[in-house]
Amino acid sequence: MKSSLKIPGEFRVFLNYPFDKEFEPLACAMHFAVVASGLIPVCAKDENAPDQLRLDMLVSMISSCRFSIHDFSRYKGEGEQNFARFNTPLEMGMALYYAISTEQREHRCAFFVATPHDYKSFASDLSGLDAKQHANSDVLLVTEIYEWLAQTGEPYVDARPTIEVQEKYSHYRKELEKVKGSGKNGWPTHHEVRELMYTMCSEWGWWDWRNGKFKSLFPKWPLAWKS
């Protein structure tokens, strides 16, 4: 996908989540829920500007989105050096400041955790916020994000029965298994994963950003299929 910064911010949703293999099903669910809403998912993988500081890029991306959704599933130390990850909370801090400083007129954000109470120990400042939990279930995450976006009441967010979104997501996951990915171990890359959901959601009449004046921002990404 080419840069979508030209698209009005109310249609853009910044997604903040861990970029690791274990999280890929949940990442897929996050993107699908946004696309099913008729909106544009945006994440750090979408922008590649070697001459721009990463923090500047992130500030620009977040401030150009009406919504942001953040996952707090990774908070314990990992690897030989037992380091915890701080990129996710750093990005959420940017989004929270933007939302609070504009009294949520310009930006609204939601954050998700795997379990309901752990975050109160490692990020107690967030205790007053309504954290949503996904229990490491991609179906539950699709449901929660889709319903959160629908309940914002914004007229440009498509609203349809949740059960329909869940059923279509299940169908999408089955089709994704048929894709011969060009990523590690044959898994579809970020662009391939999203190309399939763009295509399928377009066919269902849920997502039409490849029509009209923004068509050039979403060139089709070629997909290969398993025999």
Highest CATH level, the class: Alpha Beta
The side-by-side strand order for the widest beta sheet comes to: 2-1-3-4-5
Molecular shape = globular
How would a crystallographer describe the biggest sheet?
5 strands, parallel
The overall pLDDT average reads 87
Q: What is the number of beta strands? A: 5
Radius of gyration: 17 Å
Amino-to-carboxy terminus distance:
27 Å
Summed up, the helix count is 7
Helical proportion, percent range: 25-40%
So, the CATH homologous superfamily? Toll/interleukin-1 receptor homology (TIR) domain
Run of helices and strands: EHEHEHEHEHHH
CATH architecture: 3-Layer(aba) Sandwich
CATH topology: Rossmann fold
Unreliable stretches = none
What percentage of the residues does DSSP assign to strands (E)? Answer: 5-15%
**Count of domains:** 1
Helices and strands: which structural class? alpha/beta
Describe the protein:
It is a single chain. With 227 residues, the protein is an alpha/beta fold. The chain has one domain: 3-Layer(aba) Sandwich (Rossmann fold). Helix content is 37%, strand content 9%. The protein has seven helices and five strands; from the N terminus they run βαβαβαβαβααα. Helix 1 (24-36) runs parallel beside helix 5 and helix 5 (138-150) packs across helix 6.
Characteristic terms for this protein:
5-stranded parallel beta sheet, 7 helices, 227 residues, globular, alpha/beta, 5 strands, Rossmann fold, 37% helix
Question: Which SSEs are present, and which pair or pack?
Answer:
Elements: E1 12-16, H1 24-36, E2 40-42, H2 54-63, E3 67-71, H3 87-101, E4 108-113, H4 119-122, E5 132-133, H5 138-150, H6 162-176, H7 190-203
Parallel strand pairs: 1-2, 1-3, 3-4, 4-5
Helix pairs in contact: 1-5, 1-7, 2-3, 5-6
